[in-house]
Design brief:
The complex is a heterodimer. By secondary structure, chain A is an alpha/beta fold. Helix content of chain A is 30%, strand content 27%. Chain A has 9 helices and 20 strands. In chain A, the strands form 5 sheets. In chain A, strands 1, 2, 3, 4, 5, 6 and 20 form a 7-stranded mixed beta sheet that branches. In chain A, a hairpin with a 4-residue loop joins β18 and β19. The model of chain A has no long low-confidence stretch (mean pLDDT 96). Chain B has 1 helix and 8 strands. Chain B has a 5-stranded mixed beta sheet, covered by helices on one side. Chain B has a two-stranded antiparallel sheet with strand order 4-5. Chains A and B meet through β8, α3 and β9 of A and β1, α1 and β5 of B. β9 of chain A pairs antiparallel with β1 of chain B, so a sheet runs across the interface.
């Protein structure tokens, strides 16, 4: 059994920032991630961030991943475990880890869950064919591993991820044959959509996929137009040949580890799905287990970082070894979050966060 | 089914080659590859076949979440190839059954 003050599960934007805070408070910290690199989804994000300087605005995600890791240099009490998957989590704050075919057990005084999100899927005929993949997966294989898996693609979903990934695939030389959106308007920011339209990309609203066509792998897709009730309009079928079909229909918080220890969860649509319920200090209903980032509500990496800092700080308070600048920093990062959520998308998130807190006291 | 050679933002650096065996044939990947990225660069789109209907299974999530890219590597079944770094002389095989029961 390995003993530590803090165990952080997930090495993305929120896990990395939480680790900085607990390390600065001289708490022994283990940061684990199932991947072979740290940074989470930042490692494939070649676009520049919005927000303020504090949130690394105008910097690219790939560079922010490096900055956050550099911030963790020179902490003697920090252990980073990569290629490590949590296969068991227990209420007494013990985790079973599988690292490269070897099982390890870690006992911690505090656990911070920062497992992020996974991509939602869509049901249609032949949706299991190879070369149909999530937007994040395509972005990873192209931007991180520099491999081009096909010459052409069709994107399902016109949210910000669908739009940004389509643009990035064009930068890598992949032809974007169409972006398809079932709603009557584009889901993401106009600035991203305009960029694609200027390059001649066809963004089809009120359109969806009916089936994928192919044998050993995807060869073509059948698209149809839908009415305001999302029912097929007869006679609108169109077959488009494509090497890749990319599915970008939203993200789900990865709440599974919280559920494994019987933390109270609830389905909160504004936060993207099932999330663990939290108090104001980001603690779940299980004493000493905290959670932050996309796993407690789908937002952007910028807010995940601010939540990571805050959660790390609250964890240091909980362990009676507060970070030397704890109160000031908490105020500071709360203000940052407040600014980030000052918009249309932010308003929705705030409603979700309120529910997440209220349900904690009322849930059975 | 190729590598990026030039990119407006990403820094494309020369990388060392890593030799490995896929389905009995020696092929090459590059330093920094996962098993899956090396295979995709070679045009491999099928990572496995489903157990009951033998339908092809491809790369899907890239974060070790969906199990679609699991392969047998050096005799170990169900290795998530999208998050496992490629190593010299690895023996990588597609899975068509549920694997050997222990």
């Amino acid at each position: 059994m390995i003993h530590t003050d803090v165990l952080i599960i997930g090495g993305g934007p929120s896990g990395l920032t939480a680790a900085k805070m607990t390390c600065e408070a001289n708490l022994s910290t283990i940061l684990i991630d199932r991947s072979h690199i740290l940074g989470g989804q930042l490692t494939k994000q070649t676009h520049k961030f919005f927000g303020s300087k504090e949130q690394y605005a105008k910097q690219r995600g790939i560079d922010i991943a490096t900055i956050l890791q550099d911030n963790l240099q020179n902490f003697p009490h920090l252990t980073i475990m990569l290629e490590s998957t949590v296969v068991g989590l227990y209420e007494d704050k013990v985790a079973t880890i599988l690292q490269r075919n070897e099982y390890k057990k870690i006992s911690a005084k505090v656990i911070i869950l920062a497992t992020g999100a996974s991509e939602k899927f869509l049901s249609f005929e032949n949706n299991d064919l190879p070369q149909i993949m999530g937007a994040g997966a395509l972005q990873t294989i192209v931007n991180l591993y520099q491999v081009i898996p096909g010459q052409s693609m069709v994107m399902i979903g016109s949210g910000n991820i669908g739009l940004i990934v389509s643009y990035q695939m064009m930068q890598a030389g992949i032809e974007v044959k169409a972006i398809v959106e079932a709603n009557d308007c584009i889901g993401g920011y106009k600035v991203h959509a305009s960029k694609l339209k200027r390059l001649g990309v066809d963004i089809k609203t009120r359109t969806t996929i009916k089936r994928a066509i192919g044998h050993e792998k995807l060869e073509a897709v059948e698209l149809i137009q839908v009415d305001s009730d999302f029912k097929e309009i007869p006679g609108t079928s169109q077959i488009i040949e494509t090497d890749i079909l990319c599915v970008s229909v939203g993200l789900s918080p990865q709440h599974q580890l919280a559920s494994m220890i019987n933390a109270k969860t609830a389905f909160i649509p504004q936060l993207g799905g099932f999330v663990p319920l939290l108090n104001d200090q980001y603690m779940t209903s299980v004493e000493g287990v905290f959670a932050c980032g996309d796993m407690v509500g789908i937002e952007e990496a910028s807010s995940a970082m601010m939540e990571g800092y805050l959660t790390g700080l609250y964890a240091t308070q909980y362990l009676n070894q507060p970070h030397p600048k704890c109160d000031n920093l908490i105020q500071h990062y709360q203000n940052q979050l407040y600014e980030l959520r000052d918009g249309l998308f932010g308003h929705k998130t705030l409603i979700g966060i309120q529910k997440r807190k209220e349900k904690l006291t009322h849930a059975p | 089914m190729s590598r990026i050679l030039k990119h407006p933002i990403i820094d494309v650096k020369p990388r060392d080659k890593i030799r490995f065996i896929f389905e009995g044939v020696e092929i090459e990947g590059l330093e920094g590859d996962t098993i899956a990225s090396a295979l995709i660069a070679h045009g491999v789109t099928t990572m496995a076949y489903s157990i009951k209907k033998q339908r092809p299974r491809g790369f899907y999530c890239a974060i070790g979440n969906c199990a679609s890219c699991e392969m047998t590597v050096n005799g170990h079944a169900h290795v998530r190839t999208c998050i496992t770094p490629l190593e010299e002389n690895m023996i990588v095989v597609r899975e068509q059954t549920e694997g050997q029961k222990l």
